[in-house]
Amino acid sequence: MGMTIIVSLLSITISSLVLASRGLHYQYDQALYISPWTSQEAKVPSPSISPSFDSSISTSPSPSPSPATASPLAPALFVIGDSSVDSGTNNFLGTFARANHLPYGRDFDTHRPTGRFSNGRIPVDFLALRLGLPFVPSYLGQTGGVEDMIHGVNYASAGAGIILSSGSELGQHISFNQQIQQFTDTLQQFILSMGEDATTTLISNSVFYISIGINDYIHYYLLNVSNVDNLYLPWRFNQFLASSVIQGIKNLYNVNVRRVVVMGLAPIGCAPHYLWEYGSENGECIEQINDMVMEFNFLMRYMVERLSEELADFSIIFCDVLESSMDILKNHERYGFNVTTDACCGLGKYNGWIMCLSPDMACTNASNHIWWDQFHPTDAVNSILADNVWDGLHTKMCHPINMKDMVIR
C-alpha cells in the first residue's frame, strides 16, 4: 500500500506558480502554449511568498460558528478551485486578483475582508457547517501543522484555471494541477505525522469539492489567447477542459480520495461584466457565452457519470451551477432579489466596467442583489447554491445524488 501511494504521488505533475504581466504571458504562450493541449508545465520549486496586505485583514483561519452537529458527517473538507471558493489564498500572492480589502467581507462573520470574493460567505463555508466542520482555512494561510489541516484545507486561488496560464495576466495564481500537487504535499505531511492507515481512513472519508474552469473562458478563450477561438471550436475546447478535470480526479482517486463534488460553471453570460462589455440593452444575458457554459456542464456531467461507473468504491457527483443559478434569476422575486443585473459594487453600466475597489463603490444592501461584483454572486446567492448542493432544498442541481446523500450513506 505504501509503494502504491508513493508511485501515485510521483505520477502527478509537479507544477509551480507563474507571475507574469500580460505581455510576458503572451510570450510564454508563444513559447510553450501554441495550443492549450500541450502537456508542458514549468517545473520549478513552489516559491515561498510572504503576505503583504492590510493589517485589517484576518490572517488566521476564519472563525466559525459552532458546528451544527456534535459528530461531523465527514472528517474533513478539501477545496480545489478558483475565486468562487478562494478563502484567502491570493492574499499571499502577487496578483491583482485579491479580495483583501473592504467592502469584501463586510457582511462576513467578522465583518472584515478575508480574501473571499463576496460580501460574506462563499458556498464552501455554508457546506462546511452542514458537515459539522469549521470553516476551511486556505493552504497558504495556515502554519502548515497537521493540527491546522486535520479538518480540511482550501487550495482555491482566484484567477486559476484548468489551463496553467489562464489568468496569468492578473499575476500569480495556483492552477488546477498545482492545487492537486499542494494536496499531495499535505497528504505526505499527514502520512509522516499520523501514519498511512490513519491517513487513508481520513482521506477516503473526507469530501473533496472542485469548482474551477470559468477562468479558462474569462481569461483564455474569450480573450482569444494564442488565437485559441480561431483554432478550436468551443466543443473541442470544452472536451479538453473536461478531460483535464477528469484526469485530475483520477489522480486524486489514486491517493485514496473517494468522495468528490464537481461543480459546473456559472452563467457568466449573465454577469454584469459581460452585460457591460457586450452592450446588453435591457440586461439580457449573453447567450453565446452561456451556450459554451451549458455545453461544458453537459459534457462534464457525462464524463463524471462515466467515471463513476469506471472506478470502484467511488462516490462522485456533478452539480450544475448554471441550472441552479438560472432558477434564481428567473424566480428572483421568490428568492427576495429585486436587482438582477447590476452588481452591488462596481462602476459603469450594470456596475460591470470596473471591479469593486472601495467601500464607496458598494450599494448599501447586498441582500437584494444577485451579483456582488463583476463576476461573483452575493452571500445570499451563495447560501441558496449551498442549500441546493447539500439537499436540493430549492431546486435539484446535483446528479445523481446530492451531497447530503453522499456523506450519510
TrEMBL record:
Gene Ontology terms describing biological process: lipid catabolic process
Domain of life: Eukaryota
Keywords from the UniProt entry: Hydrolase, Lipid degradation, Lipid metabolism, Signal
Region of interest: Disordered: 45-69
Gene Ontology molecular function, alphabetical: hydrolase activity, acting on ester bonds
CDD domains linked to this entry: SGNH_plant_lipase_like (cd01837)
Pfam families recorded: Lipase_GDSL (PF00657)
Signal peptide extent: 1-20
SUPFAM superfamilies: SGNH hydrolase
Protein name from the UniProt record: GDSL esterase/lipase
